[in-house]
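Per your request, structure below.
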């Protein structure tokens, strides 16, 4: 991924699409009834931030590869 090859771009596009869809589906998956303790609630929001960071990193890498 250090070079600007088509494979590197494809991996970045896949990462952005996969984690973007996963992030978009998180509110729809109805996990709220299972968030009964503070650590489950915190973990749910931590996963949201983690998925958002995956999308941001892959998008940043894709932009850097396109330059």
């Amino acid at each position: 991924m250090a070079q600007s090859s088509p494979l590197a771009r494809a991996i970045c596009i896949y990462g952005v699409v996969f984690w973007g869809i996963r992030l978009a589906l998180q509110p729809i998956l109805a996990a709220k009834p299972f968030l009964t303790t503070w650590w489950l609630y915190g973990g749910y929001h931590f996963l949201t931030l983690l998925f958002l960071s995956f999308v941001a990193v892959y998008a940043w890498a894709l932009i850097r590869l396109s330059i």
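The mean pLDDT is 92.

Regards,
D.
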